[in-house]
Amino acid sequence: MNSVVWLAVRFLFPKRENRFLSVATLVAILAVGLGVASLLVSLSVISGFQKVYKESILKFNSHLVLTSGGEIEDIHAVIKVIPEEMKKEIVGWHPFIYREGMMIAGQELRGVVLKGVDFEKINLFSHLEIVRQASLDGKLSGIFLGKKLAEQLGEGIREVRFLFPRSSRKELIHRFQVQGTFESGMYDYDSSFAFIPLEEAQKLFQLGTGVTGIEFWLQDPDRAFYWADFLKGDPEFPFFVMTWREINENLFRALETEKVVFFILMVVLTAVASFNLLSSLIMMILEKRPQIAVLRAVGLPWSRIRKIFLFNGLLIGCAGLFIGFALGSGLLFFLKRSEMILLEPEVYFVSRVPVVLSGINIILVAGVGLGLVGLGCLLTLHGLNRLPILRALVEK
Prior knowledge:
Layout: H1 3-12, H2 19-60, E1 64-72, H3 75-80, H4 84-89, E2 90-105, E3 108-117, H5 119-125, E4 129-132, E5 141-146, H6 147-153, E6 159-163, E7 173-183, H7 187-190, E8 193-197, H8 198-204, E9 211-218, H9 223-232, E10 240-243, H10 244-247, H11 249-287, H12 289-297, H13 302-337, H14 345-348, H15 359-381, H16 389-395
Parallel strand pairs: 3-8, 5-7
Antiparallel strand pairs: 1-9, 1-10, 2-3, 2-6, 2-9, 4-7, 5-8, 6-7
């Protein structure tokens, strides 16, 4: 065994009569472990929210949306101006109509977004859970409500009325028969949207063949960012382009900000926890002054003595990392499986704490933890050669 490693291990376990140093070392290990566990849990929970929100958003939204300043009359003219390379990545598209109004159901009055869609294509390309609950009686137009919206309006609701602005159509109020519900998993969408057939929406708003825009689904949702930048960079492209992320920009920006803030706070917490390790290392150095003096007397250079205590500090830090990962993984498993901690969907959009333990987060936490421990050890050992070892040698 290398002499540095052997001496480091011997120094790490003091004499039996020095219990205080053993307790200080244990406290340092636990402090680093708690800091690492906090950092791991916070990053995993924020990553979980990002993953759940992305999945729910992509259930409801397409990957890329093209609109104009008004209604698009010729759908096929839009398809013609799409680059051929982009067409190879498109797995599906469909036009839609988007209108806002007030929904009246019994004594309830709510602001709702009415969206005209092609249900066949929606079923093919999106991952919405659409449940048909009733057949049309032939008297009223059919409508599908978001699941949360239907729950808020009351179970067994069969008919709703829509109040539209005068600019939307001649008649202010239109009645619909509730055919079923849909669910995306995002509270905002499931509580404020309703779907009707595209042809019905065109008749309702006297649009003829006009539509609000066209939605596209790509093989890879993240490729929407590339094609959006490409189309926006073409000065002759006549339409507005939005990606699924831009539609929900505020949500994702808030998540990124929260992730950075949590990361900084947890790094500071881990750094504070590392001070316990530094104090333990300093006490160990003071305790081992006679041994250091003997090692210097037999010709061991300061660089190797520093390595001994650096290895000590890293051993303590690695033990703290191991405990932190074990504790953090246990907490994440508890959060994922337990139903004791439930969230308000109206606030957090989801009902349970989402968790994603990714390899990137593990590497990041391990790197930050070891980096802080190593930096602290180096700063502590910087003035090691100024110890009064001659007095310690005489005392020894």
